[in-house]
């Protein structure tokens, strides 16, 4: 179907869960993703879509197996798209040497640096190429709503990557040393000049998350920037005693799915 | 604690999820298990326990990550014990050669055959040794209720192992060739002479389960035996289009947890 290879079709919570792959134009590589189509979705009644960006080192299988988001999306009539963290099937120099750079760690940006720029065009792939293909070949998905995204939520995000060591390494590798360029991929920097509607943003951070405790996430900086920009619509929650695992993801999965479903007008 | 090694403590759905291992007396080997203690459980208010026997080839990590049973057990105040499928850390001849025999496939019985009988005493381990240890060292678990088990449920069980090729291989290896001995470990045979109370038994089978379609599960035989014994309390459900994966487990997880919780008097 449309160049997609269907690697598995599994019934889950009354809906269809598909494991798919295809040869992507933007990344000149194999891209894997998974898709949950809720029960009742059809050409006549297409389902809106929540797009999930997988965490560093993960594949789409991780969250689909451990996140348990289907359970909450099915009764709401919400479709779920789980993206992979990088192109696959390449062997660029050093690509597989570290968990925080190269394969499994694209940071979802368009690289401008050698040797990455020929393949690591994940921003173009996930914001334009793949949505257009899905709209063309999965008519039971509603890709027509005005505005590209209605809401955003995150578990333990790197909220200010320009200032966290883990992301600095990746940004330098993918984007070069000019830190002004980095700001275009940094939520805390971007929100300072946000001119759109009020935010619809939910963030959960576990207080026992080692990345948080090491200063790799910096949600406080994002919160401060939102306040200084006089924006509304951020809900930042610190979840006592939770770590960075999929048990944290699944515990609060219902809240994140409902957050998206509400913004998409499903209730 | 009590010879237990705590390999991880993770907060999940407000409760405590523990990865534990210990040196077991019955199996003369390392035994791994995981334990979910729901929020609110205490010495004063101990939680009753649902014991989950992992599927062939699996470790306790599989169901804890992919089954999503914590979500349903937490609000009901039910504790969950996830058992491993065999002793670990041994190297008996041929032990690791196949997925359906040896490591990962003890069938939870006491072997009487060489070379298994020195270690593969899983029935004694899971029905006596481990419950006694848990009662001693986890006072927030209620192990005191009369009768050993109050209910049973299963996803896609081998319901009549004496007649299915997959289990026949294992029974011959662990128990020898005498088929009368096999009957003591075959639910369909056992129910024929059941003299206890009415059953409290829930079984789900997916109609697209390859093991079911190949005649490895035989739930029909179990149902017939229950009817012929004039017993009540079996609910056997065929779930249309579901396979043998953890997506099947998680889809119906809420029903199985509630089935146990109800039998334990939690609602």
Automatic annotation (TrEMBL), chains A, B:
Transmembrane segments: none annotated. PANTHER family: S-FORMYLGLUTATHIONE HYDROLASE. Signal peptide: none annotated. This is S-formylglutathione hydrolase. Gene3D superfamilies: alpha/beta hydrolase. Its EC number is 3.1.2.12. One of its GO terms (biological process) is formaldehyde catabolic process. Keywords: Hydrolase, Serine esterase. InterPro entries: AB_hydrolase_fold, Esterase-like, S-formylglutathione_hydrol. Pfam families: Esterase. Coiled coil: none annotated.
């Amino acid at each position: 179907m449309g160049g997609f290879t269907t690697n598995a079709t599994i019934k889950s919570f009354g809906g269809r869960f598909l494991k798919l792959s295809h040869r992507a134009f933007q990344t000149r590589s194999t891209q894997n993703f998974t898709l949950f189509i809720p029960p009742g979705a059809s050409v006549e009644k297409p389902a809106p879509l929540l797009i999930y960006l997988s965490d560093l080192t993960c594949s789409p299988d991780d969250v689909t197996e451990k996140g348990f988001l289907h359970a909450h999306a099915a009764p709401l009539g919400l479709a779920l798209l789980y993206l992979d963290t990088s192109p696959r099937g390449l062997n660029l120099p050093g690509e597989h040497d570290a968990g925080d750079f190269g394969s499994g760690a694209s940071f979802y940006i368009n690289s401008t640096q050698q040797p990455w720029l020929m393949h690591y065009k994940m921003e173009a792939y996930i914001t334009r190429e793949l949505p257009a293909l899905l709209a063309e070949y999965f008519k039971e998905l509603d890709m027509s709503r005005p505005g590209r995204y209605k809401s955003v939520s995150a578990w333990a995000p790197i909220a200010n990557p320009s200032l966290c060591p883990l992301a600095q390494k990746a940004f330098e590798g993918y984007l070069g040393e000019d830190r002004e360029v980095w700001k275009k991929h940094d939520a805390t920097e971007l929100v300072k000049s946000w001119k759109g509607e009020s935010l619809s943003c939910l963030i959960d951070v576990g207080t026992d998350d080692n990345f948080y405790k090491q200063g790799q996430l910096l949600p406080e900086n994002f919160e401060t920037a939102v306040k200084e920009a006089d924006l509304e619509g951020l809900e930042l929650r610190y979840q006592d005693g939770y770590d960075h695992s999929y048990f944290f993801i699944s515990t609060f999965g219902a809240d994140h799915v409902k957050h998206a479903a509400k913004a998409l007008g499903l209730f």
